[in-house]
């Protein structure tokens, strides 16, 4: 029951990094707090699994210190770390029954038999495995096998953290929702630190209290799902979270006005701190650009996408493309509509990082 | 989607092979069957003998029956001895073999080397190697005061033939096991570390179960080859001293080609063949059925 501290942890596979791009994981400072559910979100190859394996000890970082509580465990072997991890593909012990599989991590740690049995029964009930407890694990479906893997990860009550490495990849979509909410319920019931690696934003946003968005070996933002949606600190977060992602437009910003492709509109804050000579962008999510009947910016509709629960239009403002939420009525392609951009949810980015303005 | 046309004419492609098998195997075996139910007075005249050759062979009170019994017992003992050494040794060495880096290629080639040597050459190498007067191995053992002589001591002869087979064919078990081990995904080893499994648990709960299918094949191959062993004892011991290393194949050779006793030899070779087939079939069926039954 401790928090986990990453003290400038960095990793380069295959030894000495010469430049920053040699790092698979760039120096990272973070405290994972006891009892919270985290998601590590990012595209494939962004270093999220490396980070997870560093915490569990399957990979020893080339730099930095890893602390469980205030104990330095950087070089401690996995089996002495008191950590559980669930992998992407089911790992089961072929010759054992489901019950023996679930009991295995406890048996290896020489817990008394009654404790093991009680714990196995509890976890099996949580994951709907009770009926299968006496069966050999090998004959089961991939879904059930992955549930066993999850169960083995959750069965130890004393772990510092449970790590999940894209655990629902092999699971049927219908069952995915169910298992995810089960994991969430388990998290609430067990009060454990959980870290969940995924490249699926829905999975991350529904599971986690806090999401760590990673790109290219770097954590670009750590925040609640709402923070990531309403205030992306980095253009990558804006682009990666949301479907489709944030609109970014190269702009000239002066005070509380922005000029894009010759058109000017208002911002929610006053920016007099924008440095000269660096690329400036204005970012706004499609959800905050709407078609208005009043005065607005003239935009030409290029393409309409009906997603069922919402309708999007791909428009161009001058020569700049933009995605806009549209009401049912808007029709014709090529039509010029008036759009309004919500100033409160429009942000200014300099060199990909969000700039905080001051209140007007 | 278009449906695949059903066309049985593809069977014609198999015909040349069937023809080849007919001439290389089926017709020769039929001559053996023919000999096994006939007797001859020489001058190429044969007459019907019914199942008499088989009755004699399977009756230990007859000379041929006793001889067959002894040779069968020796051959089974030899097979079991070789399996008992080669399988565990092969697995153990496969576990020790390097898994990455430059050492992989070198060690695999070195391991495979004995298998590339033809049987009769293996026999000749070992025949010289084990000679008590000039052989490096034989002379060294004699030098340490051991009573080692392949042509005079039954124990020396037996031990030598077993050692030759172990040296020649353990590499097959190593390579099969090595391939089986390499096929186990890393996640299994990682999960075992997370679960706090001991080295023994990793072996018995992950590696051995995953190797099972490969090992069934290894045991079958090694059983068949050791049960039919011929060249090594023929070259190194000649079946002796006395009849200590006269295995079924050697005995069969003596009866068929040495004594030209075609009826006895034919009956013996058919029974020999059926034993090999039956043992393999039972072993394979039991192993696969056991697995299937446990899964349910």
From TrEMBL, chain A:
Single GO cellular component term: ATP-binding cassette (ABC) transporter complex, substrate-binding subunit-containing
Topology of the protein relative to the lipid bilayer: Peripheral membrane protein
Localization per record: Cell inner membrane
A Pfam family that the UniProt record links to this protein: ABC_tran
Gene Ontology molecular function, alphabetical: ABC-type ferric iron transporter activity; ATP binding; ATP hydrolysis activity
Domain of life: Bacteria
Main location: membrane
Domain ABC transporter, chain residue ranges per copy: 4-241
Claim: Phosphoprotein is one of the keywords in the record: no
Membrane-spanning residues: none
Entry annotated with the keyword Transferase: no
Family the UniProt entry places it in: Belongs to the ABC transporter superfamily.
Protein name, entry field: Carbohydrate ABC transporter ATP-binding protein (CUT1 family)
Organism, as annotated: Roseiarcus fermentans
Automatic annotation (TrEMBL), chain B:
Name the record gives this protein: Carbohydrate ABC transporter membrane protein 1 (CUT1 family)
Keyword presence, tRNA-binding: no
Gene3D superfamilies: MetI-like
Localization: Cell membrane
Domain ABC transmembrane type-1: 72-283
SUPFAM superfamilies tied to this protein: MetI-like
Membrane association type: Multi-pass membrane protein
Stated family: Belongs to the binding-protein-dependent transport system permease family.
